Amino acid sequence: xxxxxxxxxxxxxxxxxxxxxxxxxxxxxxxxxxxxxxxxxxxxxxxxxxxxxxxxxxxxxxxxxxxxxxxxxxxxxxxxxxxxxxxxxxxxxxxxxxxxxxxxxxxxxxxxxxxxxxxxxxxxxxxxxxxxxxxxxxxxxxxxxxxxxxxxxxxxxxxxxxxxxxxxxxxxxxxxxxxxxxxxxxxxxxxxxxxxxxxxxxxxxxxxxxxxxxxxxxxxxxxxxxxxxxxxxxxxxxxxxxxxxxxxxxxxxxxxxxxxxxxxxxxxxxxxxxxxxxxxxxxxxxxxxxxxxxxxxxxxxxxxxxxxxxxxxxxxxxxxxxxxxxxxxxxxxxxxxxx
Length: 339
What we know:
This protein is an alpha/beta fold. The protein has 2 domains: 4-127 and 149-156, no CATH class; 168-332, NAD(P)-binding Rossmann-like Domain (Rossmann fold, 3-Layer(aba) Sandwich), CATH 3.40.50. It is 35% helix and 22% strand. A 6-stranded parallel beta sheet has the order 12-11-10-13-14-15, sandwiched between helices. β8 and β9 form a beta hairpin. Residues 169-311 form the XdhC Rossmann domain. It holds the Pfam family XdhC_C. InterPro entries: MoCofactor_Util/Proc, XdhC_CoxI, XdhC_Rossmann_dom. Residues 15-72 form the XdhC- CoxI domain.
């Protein structure tokens, strides 16, 4: 399953290539509470078909009414991009289902250039980050490769959006927990791969849509082209597999690196990496373990929910309070370190 942004752009490209009229809407600014973050996109076809979203549904309905139903599709005329605002008044906020005080601003692009979308998608499919810059006065779009994601910005004249390959997850160990975690990662838009050199584990894998890799995990991590949208999760419980993979990952740009295990096992892992592999407390700061948020999880499915929540928090730049960490919560409850 590809990311929703790429899906919106790909669908818009395909509609344009088929000769349809297309409106591309982007959440440019928000004030107060907003159902969708800035940068969220949707594509609207002249017959009312929609992919993506900019709100909980009511604004989409208004856009469909305004640009397709009301004018029979003629509302999608050739023009420079427009800015529209929703939720300015309390009545509008109620009408469009916005939270109290919520206001959002959309940039509307009418029939974005097919050639530009083609070029953008080629770059994204090749795994590259691209900065897309839209000038509202002219509708001109420029694409620039970039090494790092930047915050979405809009100053009323120009809109800058960094787009890139979908988020990826590499799991070490093809056990039951990995199957649950892979399922959750897939429906959150991650591209998922699982690595395990043990035939009895990898051959029993049952989750479709996941790349299966047979090989030593440290070699796999080295060859995986890890980038800032990659997370690496060690789930094998075997130090011979997990430790070397984690060592390789810690010297790369992955946004999340973690390993399953009890507090005691996590501490022993850190001691091994320091004593035998020359790591330091500072170099291990990025290593998470025990992984997950503390929700009292017991089963593989519940643990997967806990781990996926922590990964999504890291992806979204959310700092999780220490009381939600497994180590702090279990220590507070007086549980033994072996758990």
